[in-house]
Amino acid sequence: MSQAGPRASQPSLRRVLLVWLLLPLIALIPLTAALVYGLALRPALDALDRALTDTAVALAQIIDSRGDHISLPISEQTARALRADLVDETVFAVGDPQGRLLGGHDTLLALAPRVEVGEWHFFEGWLEGKPVRVAAYGAGCGEGGAQVCTIMVAETLGKRGAAERAALLAALIGALSLALPLVLLAMLAVNRTLRPLNSAAAEVESLTPKRLEPIDARGVPREVLGFVHALNRLLARLRDAADAQRHFVADAAHQLRTPLAVLRVEAAQLLAMPHPEALQPALERLHAAAERGARLAQQLLALARAEGAALDPTQRPQPLDLARLAAETADRWLPPSLEAGQDLGFDLQPAWIEGHSLLLGELLGNLVHNAIEHAGRGARITIRTRPVGDAAELSVEDDGPGLTPAEREAVWTRFRRGQSAEGTGSGLGLAIVRDIARLHGGEATLEAGEGGRGLLARVRFPALASAPTSRP
Question: Are 350 and 467 in contact (CB under 8 A)?
Answer without folding.
Answer: yes
